[in-house]
Amino acid sequence: MIRVELQWLVFVYLLVFLAGIFVIWIAYEMARRNRERRSLQHRVQCALCGAQFEDRSSISLPRCPRCGSLNERIKPRGY
User: Are 47 and 77 in a shared domain?
Assistant: First the structure.
């Protein structure tokens, strides 16, 4: 039988518990960033009036629904 002091047993238990919480937190953050990236993928901001709109078509120059100007597709910053 392996003899372990209570202090070391508590220390190992807390270490494993905190490591598990850390892994779950990292997985949640990665999933959140993927959801955010997917939601911003089709978002376009008009260069003339500043309106943001969603365009899921494959047109390279979508037209703004507010002012009618043509806009280039620009990747969102930070991704």
Answer: yes
**What pLDDT, on a 0 to 100 scale, did the predictor assign at position 30?**
97
Q: Please tell me whether residue 50 adopts helix, strand or coil conformation.
A: coil
DSSP lists the bridge partners of residue 45 as 52
Q: How far apart are the first and last CA of the chain?
A: 53
Residues 8 and 29 in one domain: yes
Looking at residues 72-77, what average pLDDT do you find?
Answer: 71
What is the 3-state composition of the chain as percent helix, strand, coil, each rounded to the nearest 5? 45, 10, 45
Indicate the helix (H) or strand (E) that contains 64. Answer: none
Three-class secondary structure of residue 53 per DSSP: strand
Residue type, 42: H
Do residues 70 and 63 touch, judged by C-beta distance below 8 A?
A: yes
Residue pLDDT, tens place only, 15-39: 999 999 999 999 999 999 999 888 8
Beta strands in 12-77 (DSSP E): 43-45, 52-54
